[in-house]
Amino acid sequence: MDLRDSAEEARFRARLRTWLAENVPDESEPAVLAERWPYMRAFQERLYRAGWVALSYPTDVGGQGLGPMEEAILSEELGRANAPTLLPLGHLGRPLHRYGSEEQRRRYLRPLLAVEEIWCQGFSEPEAGSDLASLRTRAVREGEEWVIDGHKIWTSYGAFADYCLLLARTDPDAVRHRGISAFIVPLDTAGVTVRPIVLANGEEEFAEIFLDGVRIPAENMLGEPSDGWRIAMDVVNYERGAVETGYLPKFARYLSELGEVLTASGLGADRAARLRLGRVAAHLEVLRMHCLRTLSARVSGAPPGPESSVDKLLMTAVEQELMDLSIELVTDVGSPGRAEWFDRYLYGRAGSIYGGSAQVQRNILAERMLGLPRQQG
Amino acid sequence: MDLRDSAEEARFRARLRTWLAENVPDESEPAVLAERWPYMRAFQERLYRAGWVALSYPTDVGGQGLGPMEEAILSEELGRANAPTLLPLGHLGRPLHRYGSEEQRRRYLRPLLAVEEIWCQGFSEPEAGSDLASLRTRAVREGEEWVIDGHKIWTSYGAFADYCLLLARTDPDAVRHRGISAFIVPLDTAGVTVRPIVLANGEEEFAEIFLDGVRIPAENMLGEPSDGWRIAMDVVNYERGAVETGYLPKFARYLSELGEVLTASGLGADRAARLRLGRVAAHLEVLRMHCLRTLSARVSGAPPGPESSVDKLLMTAVEQELMDLSIELVTDVGSPGRAEWFDRYLYGRAGSIYGGSAQVQRNILAERMLGLPRQQG
Amino acid sequence: MRFALSDDQQFLQKVTDEVVGQALAATPARSAATDGGELRAALWSTLVELDLVALLVPVEHGGPGGSLTDACVVAEVLGRHLAPVPYVGTAIAAAALLRFAGGPPAALAGLAAGEPYSVLLDQHLADPDGPDGPDGPDGPDGSVSIAFDWVAGARGVALSPDGVATTYELAAGEEVDDVDLLHRLRRFDPVPAAAPRGDDARRARAMAWTGAAALLTGLADGALATATEYARQRHQYQRPIGSFQAVQHLCADMLVDVETSRSMTYGASWAAEHAPIDEAMRVAAAAKAYAGAAAVRVCETSIQVLGGIGVTDEHDAHLRLRTAHLHHAAFGGPDAPMLLLADRILEGN
Amino acid sequence: MRFALSDDQQFLQKVTDEVVGQALAATPARSAATDGGELRAALWSTLVELDLVALLVPVEHGGPGGSLTDACVVAEVLGRHLAPVPYVGTAIAAAALLRFAGGPPAALAGLAAGEPYSVLLDQHLADPDGPDGPDGPDGPDGSVSIAFDWVAGARGVALSPDGVATTYELAAGEEVDDVDLLHRLRRFDPVPAAAPRGDDARRARAMAWTGAAALLTGLADGALATATEYARQRHQYQRPIGSFQAVQHLCADMLVDVETSRSMTYGASWAAEHAPIDEAMRVAAAAKAYAGAAAVRVCETSIQVLGGIGVTDEHDAHLRLRTAHLHHAAFGGPDAPMLLLADRILEGN
After folding, report:
1. B165 forms bridges with which residues in the sheet?
2. Which of B77, B208, B239, B319 is catalytic?
């Protein structure tokens, strides 16, 4: 155990801090997505040009050849500097890197990491949510093309994306998660329609993608036929880890804002409020420590496994507890900021649903980590 | 809606209050069961002689011919008078009354209600807990006798009982809950061994009953062959209702004691403690109101159904919340009374297990009240 | 003792359910968030015509002479349908304040005739022992400025410092950006006001709390119905999700919350009107505290069962959760009832 | 940054696990409640022989020069096995107090040699802003009287009012009837004491909190193992109960609690010893608060999975729950760490 930066890590952190001090924009993050997207994208481009993106990717694909520790330091320092939220797209580079052909890696990976081309993830469908293996989108081979028909949903930032990493059924006879393949789909192909989904808090970061006779070249399959499930599980496990999502600094900022609310309302000395605040603060420390542990385990290079469901459940629990606290503390109707806190709280309710519902995460832990007997039926 | 006593109910309550003022013993309930049992029994005998027991049973079997309202008033007034806890045996009279032959009712019901003969319930087995239908105790007909072999567990007050209402499998070929019959087993019969179970809090109110070639007369079957399951469900539904258990007054007393603890510790003005206390107080009001509603529904005479699982889950939740509060408020190690509160808290953990675990109650509500599709497998 | 709805009340429930159900089948509740008040006004006049708004107005002032239980039956149905009308504010809270705290007879008669009244919220006044005391950040000592369940043309009602229900013209004012999209709040120039301390004002408070509890119970019941319906139809892993024990248990916990809230609310609907004032306050406080927390819990769980669609703007689930939060917070904040109950116990020692 | 046990620490974990496991397989932990101290003494001398008790004693006073992480590895194993030894009190809390708060060198040497030391609990002192303040009901202002993890012959250690760790002969005294049956408390004549305010005393407090968190993590891990083992074997409805989703999800929630407690505890085991004092306190406070609440929750859930046998005296489940509650409450009560964390945030504003 040693939570100190190594000499190398310390140098990295110092350089990063200096850069952030000069480059984090003064204006704060716009609330409306249409303004927030270019704001986030511009900062991420600036980060990339300065060499702070794709830290743990090899240099030959546009990364920095560093490790997960540097990714963690980046996440911490961005939070400390109150920097714009990063686009949560880094995990889509992983499957491209791992399963892509030489040509695919060369063609797609660098523009993805450089934020020149935006990617999204086409996994869920209206009838295939937690049960991803029941997906119905199908791809049929016709000569040198695949013809894709289907309907994807819950695609993050789909409205802004250029490419979609899409799952489709290529073998209609294979059962469930066999027979699924992964494709690289340019979203400007004829037959693709993208429609934003408005969330309860007004957010439009998700979208639906309709695919109607969409033709893509045969070489746009990622990996081998029927590799789709394996690729999807890799992505999902990365997605579940807290580290790459930038949640940690965001939560810390929220907590500090709640402290300000308390102080302003004169409740700072109230023991009930202090106990609640302290409880959430403890949970945030737990999230931080658990992320450090997860990161350390990743230094070996092994992709995350079913234990990432612990990370996901923890992250969800911390977010929901934090948001519940905000609703408990900001209860005077019409008090300033109440509607904004409520929007965050509403968004937090989605945490136990997307990326596999809390129920699915518990199934995974029970059967794959604890070895309990399979549920019957 | 009218929560006032009717004129008749008001007269009943007034008479009862007068009697209780003169008859509730001054010395408080002993903590140790060996002393508490005779204390409880003596008071219940006194209650019976004065006509306050079996209020809602017909007069011809030793009851008072009144209704569930009077039972509720009794429960309330006993609590208000800080009277000894009633023996929770009243629900065993119900199946005797409903399913018993003329002769059985004549022979057993009055001594049961009069506390002359103590009854217990032989349902659960080591391998048949929540899944009562998997019970293995068997009764084989030999001439004019039944021969019973098996092992019962979690029998309340089994060590003090004279008779056991026992479930046994009489048809080994019938599946699960078919083929089970109910018997009246005198516990002084040869082959019966009763062994107390010591609970984590030191309580010995439960017992195991071993039956080894126990022979009872053929006429000791209650109801028809294979009526056992129906009889058991009746008992269980009565048992789940809060009204006949005397919990309500006990909880109110505990809450008032916790108020004293708070006042004594100087935490009476602490908002955190007051909020917690108020939350539990609200839940106690809910329990009271829900019991009144259940009672009103019973005025029609219909036995309770699957909705009694709401009562049971509510009662458990209120008890555990109350006990959690006590542990939160009495945290100074070694502070006076902490060990006693802890014993009550430990006992509260059993509330979500006995009488059908909380999980089983939720299954019942989901499938039988909400009509959700049956669990598969 | 009789804890059950009378035949008349069951009829009232059925009629209200049909009328409101039909109206909202034609025009969904959510449209009230953007239609400039059209649906709200249409639904309100239906309720006025059926004499449901005037239930708490005494006969001598033109009301039909109903009980708080009657009004709670209506409020529960409105909550179940998520009806965007100012029923709790006008027909229960304002009516009770005018009736018990000596409000002007003309106002009661106007209310009976369908004139809208909006309660000026005393969230900063309701907890005399709270850290805020009666001095809130909204204005000078003991003043109120936020109108609850406001509609265009509504007069405001508040308890003036002498403890009498007083009405105010609410000419100007600005929309308040709170969480509920179907029940409106509007901020006006502060008027002086007192915490409900006298017995009459406390009775009115108990009735407002109970009315909110009834609406909250209805909201929860609707959320439960939506979730169980979805759980029966939605298939994942080749079976209805309602056949999974995890989903079943979420639904069962919702049912417990709904049924126990209902017991508490109807018990309080009798006690808040008829019991001695201390008991009325105690029982109403329990109803408000419990039904509020339960409704929030149930609406959250319902969203969990609904999965992805439950967090979209187009589904009503968030509208329901929003309305639950507003009513949980209204009339003194969520903590005031619990603090009152605690102090009862502490005073007893 | 390296968040992982070293090879040496994994070896330490393995050896401790084997030694303690063998000892308790021969004589069950529960016998310590009634055997007059026999098992406790036997197990303790094994730990002393292996130099596990002296891990925090500096080399110059005869210790092996271990780290707090080493001691937490041992404490976690002891918790998992429910070992009835005064490890947290003597080997972590007392050792840290003697070492950091200028305790007499002879006491550290004695501790290294296996002499028992018992920490005098300052539960009434630890929360300077709490309603009690430093004046507890146990004696005059700033006095302590309850010895934690007491064994026959133990000397007491407390922070005297000048902020220095001081030892006391504990001649007489009476057994305290608290909740834990395996870790003993004894009440003595009060001695004057101070809250841990100086940096050295706070470091010792951070280490005691972290040690308790390690024991609590082990307790929870053992409870989880017991429950999952039972869920695999116990059949109801003709299938293992562990195949029911409701049981699976209870177990999954326990696993999340255990793994996250573990992350927090080991993170704190480094920070409490090495980080700047404010960070050390913050992280240790989070570990104590979180692992305490999690262990209680997990031990309760484990009982639910065990069903009837879980609430009997003969099963260890209640002993585990009892030990969890004592350690959750020790060293200042369950609230002190959370209040400290809250005040950090509030001071930041």
Report:
1. B121, B184
2. B239
Tell me the residue type at B333: V
Q: Residue C278 is encoded by which pair of tokens?
A: 């201390």
Q: Which of A316, A309, A310, A308 is nearest to A347 (CA)?
A: A316
Rounded to whole angstroms, the Cα distance separating A11 from A119 reads 32
CB contact under 8 A, D237 and B131: yes
Q: Is B239 a catalytic residue?
A: yes
Instruction: Return residues 268-297 of C near B (CB < 8 Å).
Output: 268-271, 274-275, 282-283, 285-287, 289-290
Nearest-Cα distance to chain C for D248, in Å, is 9
Domain boundaries, chain C: 200-347
pLDDT over 80 (residue D346): yes
Strand stretches in chain D, DSSP E: 117-120, 143-148, 155-159, 165-168, 174-175, 185-192, 235-236, 239-240
Residues of chain D neighbouring C249 (CB-CB closer than 8 A): 246
Residue B237 has pLDDT above 80, yes or no: no
Q: Is the pLDDT assigned to residue D132 strictly greater than 60?
A: no
Mean pLDDT score of chain C: 92
Distance from the Cα of A96 to chain C's closest Cα (Å) equals 27
Q: Name residue C23's amino acid.
A: A
A chain contacts of residue B268, beta-carbon cutoff 8 Å: none
Overall average pLDDT of the B256-272 stretch: 85
Dihedral, C286, C291, C294, C295 alpha carbons, nearest 10: -160
pLDDT of C189-216, one tens digit each?
A: 888 888 888 899 999 999 999 999 999 9
Residue A160 to chain D, least CA–CA distance (Å): 36
Nearest to C245 by CA among D306, A364, B360, B369: B360
- pTM > 0.90: yes or no: yes
In chain A, % of residues over pLDDT 70: 97
Which residue from A58, A52, A82, A46 is spatially nearest to A70, judged by alpha carbons? Answer: A52
**Shortest distance, CA A365 to any CA of chain D (angstroms):** 6
Phi, psi of B339 (to 5 degrees): -65, -35
pLDDT of residue B354: 85
Query: By C-alpha distance, which of C191, C214, C236 is closest to C294?
Result: C214
CATH architecture of D200-347: Up-down Bundle (1.20)
Structural domains of chain A, ranges and CATH numbers in brackets: 7-86 (1.10.540.10), 119-225 (2.40.110.10), 241-369 (1.20.140.10)
Please report the residues numbered 248 through 277 in chain D whose beta carbons come closer than 8 angstroms to any beta carbon of chain C: 249
Angle at which helices B68-80 and B7-23 cross, to 10°: 40
Q: Which residue of B has its CA nearest to A272?
A: B272
Interface with B, mutate which of D236, D315, D319 (most B CBs under 10 A): D236
Cα separation of C113 and C72, whole Å? 20
Over residues C39-49, the pLDDT tens digits come to 999 999 999 99
CB contact under 8 A, C246 and D244: no
- Which of the residues B1, B287, B313, B326 would you substitute to probe the C interface, choosing the one with the greatest number of C C-beta atoms within 10 Å? B1
> DSSP letters of A31-97?
SSHHHHHHHHHHHHHHHHHTT-SSTTS-GGGT-----HHHHHHHHHHHHHTTPPPPPTTHHHHHHHH
pLDDT of residue B213 exceeding 90, the answer is yes
Instruction: Determine, for residues C346 and B361 on separate chains, whether the beta-carbon distance falls below 8 Å.
Output: no
